[in-house]
């Protein structure tokens, strides 16, 4: 579909010009172009959600902002939607896509939810998504996305008591996930401890190398100059004269 045709179809939805079919949702009329004169009433979804579905059908995308009349509260325009509200709006699009068997629309809504969770992570937002999963049939991509996000925040997720109450998972799977989350956390802590030990070992090794380099360049103690240079490496890995304890370093 060319950009010009997309623009034309989108304009038909916006203006209702040349329409011979009307979709009614909560007293709002969407005028469309169809082969026959017809009216179709949608009662299970709010007008913004219906509008987003129609935008997608006419233009392969949909606006995230609410319609102008629904963005007014006591005569004033609402401020920018919070991430939680944005996720809820996209979940509504997932529901209508599920209801009318529109997997491409469901995929688009899921991708927008994923972007929000990645850029502005919130456990509350994620729990809202997880609670919706049992009620969606065609939105497999939403389940896959939720699982991918959950793995990135597994310990935080399974430590929340709300998780156990979700219909999306049974008790056995919940215990399995919780144990996995605890194991992952323990391994992360162990890995961090090993990294700390490795950093200390590398520092010790470098100090020892530095002391050996000083030793190779030193024939006598610069302080006492007694005979050959007898020395030792102190606990702080600094080369010292065995006779007078003078420090020798670069």
UniProtKB/TrEMBL annotation:
This is BTB domain-containing protein. Residues 184-218 form a coiled coil. InterPro entries: SKP1/BTB/POZ_sf. Residues 68-85 have a biased composition (Polar residues). Residues 65-85 are annotated as: Disordered. Keywords: Coiled coil.
């Amino acid at each position: 579909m060319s950009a010009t045709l997309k623009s034309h179809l989108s304009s038909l939805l916006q203006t209702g010009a040349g329409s011979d079919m009307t979709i009614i949702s909560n007293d709002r009329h969407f005028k469309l172009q169809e082969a026959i004169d017809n009216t179709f009433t949608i009662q299970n979804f709010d007008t913004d959600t219906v509008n987003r579905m129609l935008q997608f059908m006419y233009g392969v995308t949909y606006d995230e902002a609410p319609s102008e009349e629904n963005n007014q509260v006591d005569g004033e325009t609402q401020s920018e939607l919070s991430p939680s509200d944005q996720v809820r709006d996209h979940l509504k699009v997932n529901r209508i896509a599920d209801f009318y068997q529109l997997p491409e629309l469901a995929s688009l809504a899921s991708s927008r939810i994923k972007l929000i969770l990645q850029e502005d992570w919130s456990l509350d937002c994620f729990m809202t998504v997880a609670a919706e999963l049992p009620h969606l049939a065609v939105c497999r991509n939403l389940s896959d996305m939720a699982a991918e996000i959950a793995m990135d925040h597994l310990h935080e997720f399974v430590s929340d008591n709300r998780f156990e109450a979700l219909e999306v998972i049974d008790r056995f799977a919940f215990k399995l996930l919780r144990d996995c989350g605890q194991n992952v956390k323990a391994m992360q802590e162990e890995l961090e401890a090993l990294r700390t030990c490795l950093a200390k070992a590398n520092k010790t090794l470098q100090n020892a190398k530095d002391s050996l380099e000083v030793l190779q360049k030193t024939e006598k103690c610069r302080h006492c100059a007694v005979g050959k240079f007898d020395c030792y490496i102190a606990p702080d890995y600094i080369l010292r004269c065995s006779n007078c304890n003078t420090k020798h370093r670069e």
